[in-house]
Amino acid sequence: MATQDLTADTFEQTITDNDIVFVDFWADWCGPCKQFAPTYKSVAEQNPDIVFGKVDTEAEQQLAAAAQISSIPMLMAFREGQLVFAQPGALPKQAFEQLVQQVKDLDMEQVRAQMAQEG
């Protein structure tokens, strides 16, 4: 599956209805965002079992504010509804592919236990 545009109306449901969701927060005026877009799309096409969403921070300013986006591109990863990765900046393709594999390999029981301890 290619990438899909996420909006304030679809963001939360997409996160909760899918096992793994990556979200790329971007803007049309952002050079690094445009450089990262082909990498994001390519990795999305290699992983049809994962949802790869894109949020246009200009069109979805309230959503970007709610997600506390202060720098773009901002990449987030959610697993079973939990935010497990958030980092600004464009990743090289190999690093992004490794990140996707790491998110797939997460032991979510361990993640939830750690979040409960920190909570």
Automatic annotation (TrEMBL):
GO cellular component terms attached to this protein's record: cytosol
Entries under Gene3D superfamilies matching the protein: Glutaredoxin (3.40.30.10)
Domain Thioredoxin: 1-105
Keywords, ordered alphabetically: Disulfide bond, Electron transport, Redox-active center, Transport
Residue(s) at site: Deprotonates C-terminal active site Cys: D24
Source species, domain of life: Bacteria
Record-level Gene Ontology MF annotations: protein-disulfide reductase activity
Residues of the site described as Contributes to redox potential value: G31, P32
Active site: C30 (nucleophile), C33 (nucleophile)
Disulfide bonds: C30-C33
Keyword check for Transport: yes
Family: Belongs to the thioredoxin family.
Function as written in the Swiss-Prot or TrEMBL entry: Participates in various redox reactions through the reversible oxidation of its active center dithiol to a disulfide and catalyzes dithiol-disulfide exchange reactions.
Descriptive protein name: Thioredoxin
Gene: trxA
